[in-house]
Amino acid sequence: MRKLHRIAAVCAIGAAMVAGNVMAQTAAAKEETGKDIAFNRSKGNCLACHGMPTVPDAESTGLYGPPLIAMSARFPDKAKLRAQIWDATATNPSTSMPPFGKHGVLSEQEIDKVTDFVYGL
Amino acid sequence: MKQQIVKLLAGMASLGIALGAASVQASPEQDRQDLIKYYTSKYPNVKIEDYVYGALAFDADSKAQYDAIMEFPPFESELDTGRKLWETPFKNGKTYAECLPNGGKMIAGNYPMFDDATGKVVTLEGALNNCRTANGETAYKLGDKKTLGVLTAYMRTLSDGMLMNIKVEGPKAMAAYEDGKKTFYARKGQLNFACANCHVQNAGVRLRSELISPAVGHAVHWPVFRGGDNLVTLQSRYEGCFKQVRAVPPAQGSTTMNDLEYFHSSLSNGLPMKASVFRK
Hints:
- The structure holds two protein chains of two kinds.
- By secondary structure, chain A is mostly helical.
- Chain A has six helices and no strands.
- Chain A folds into two domains: about 1-30; about 35-120, Cytochrome c-like domain (Cytochrome Bc1 Complex, Chain D, domain 2), CATH 1.10.760.
- Chain A has helices spanning about 1-20, 20-30, 35-40, 70-75, 80-85, 110-120.
- The longest helix of chain A is centred in the N-terminal third of the chain and has 17 residues, at about 1-20.
- Chain A is globular and about 30 Å long.
- In chain A, about 30% of the residues are buried.
- In chain B, helix 1 (about 1-20) runs antiparallel to helix 2 (about 30-40), helix 4 crosses helix 7 (about 145-155) and helix 8 (about 170-185) crosses helix 11.
- Chain B contains eleven helices and seven strands.
- In chain B, strand 3 (about 205) and strand 4 (about 210) form a beta hairpin.
- Chain B has helices at about 1-20, 30-40, 60-70, 75-85, 95-100, 125-135, 145-155, 170-185, 195-200, 235-245, 255-265; strands at about 115, 120, 205, 210, 225, 230, 275-280.
- Chain B has a three-stranded mixed β-sheet with strand order 6-5-7. A two-stranded antiparallel sheet of chain B has the order 1-2.
- Chain B has two domains: about 1-70 and about 170-280, Cytochrome Bc1 Complex, Chain D, domain 2 (Orthogonal Bundle); about 75-155, Cytochrome Bc1 Complex, Chain D, domain 2.
- Chain B is globular, with a radius of gyration of 19 Å.
- Chain B is mainly alpha-helical.
- Classes of the chains: A mainly alpha, B mainly alpha.
- Chains A and B meet through loops of A and helix 1 and strand 3 of B.
């Protein structure tokens, strides 16, 4: 719950930063957040397989993978978390999780953002 | 939490065995039994006979809706159109019934069939097209809902209740079977899925809000009418699943597709045919 407040706060700061500059504002509006990418069905679509119990609008989530929760505790090393998203087959060859980085489903920058978002869950 | 992950990993380890088994040449009957064992150990309460209902076997509410819809199928008029196509003689006066074994009745469960003469798998759609060309007509386009689609939707009803009976005999037939099996178990597309990742490993599990059907029981009820009136043939469904994982689907009727249908259909051996069902 506290995390949610933090995300909300970050958004507010983001909005405040671009206020007053129309150009920057449109650019910022277009730019997807880690959460946007994770939720987007044609990008991360993480919800197809993972519940996110601490995110209220993570609805009709699938059950292929474990719920993403308490991630910073379970992945103290953020690089390991990123590696799981970049290519899950490296640690589990029979995984059904797509290799988002290895197969270019997401760009490196998008993976960074998703990693940050998931790390905060 | 931890427990859940451990359970998940255990599930995947046993799948590893199933996937590993794919590389050794096993008999088709052994393959079928292995899959049944895999599903039934995961879902002891779901009966194999119910796998013909696909994902509905895992969801009593949706199955009840399905039963209600199937009492008055919304696709009766399509079946009627198909019956007319079936009964209309070719220009030379001959009919499909004269061209096919047993007048076209109780034969659908024998297809796809391996044809030793050509060394190729023949699907039922292919056999109907062969009748057409042998009688001086042009072949229908595979996957065309308005022609071959409705024709098979009706023609297959003549085999309702027949048990699926795919035979794999001789080294050439076995090679075609193995080719289909390879397609089923090989990862493909940008999203890197094998058919087995979803329809074996995750059968009965939700992908988003979609429950996933098991591969055993898949092949007995085609074509389906999605949403009640949108006819989808089996190979069109394969196409959809290829696209879903961002893979380029092989052409319908290609060796790859036909071999896949051959392998995939043999997994349903012993289950009753039931042409044309409703799917959402």
